[in-house]
Predict the structure.
Amino acid sequence: QVQLVESGGGLVQAGGSLRLSCAASRSAFSINVMGWYRQAPGKQRELVAIITNNGATTYADSVKGRFTIARDNAKNTMYLQMTSLKPEDTAVYYCYAAITSRTYWGQGTQVTVSS
């Protein structure tokens, strides 16, 4: 089992940047896949980016070239660097972890991008 705690959300103007962090309660070396999802009001939760234990990454088309996912297993922490933010990036961002066949979620952090 693992607890995930996100931080770093907030209000930013369009074109600005934010960095989200996700701290895991256990060694990240044991977490196969970590990632970020987001959910905007009235919309389904969607994949933003994921990163495997060996560093392979996948991004949603809508964030490619603007967002960068990274993980520091020694610190049990995952990051999402978001640049060139757009109003449509406004959502609650959730940290995700997969360990074998089980998945875990953080409580979410709000990101609001003003135009």
The chain has a mean pLDDT of 96. The longest strand covers residues 91-99. The radius of gyration is 13 Å. Residues 34 and 72 are 11 Å apart (CA to CA).
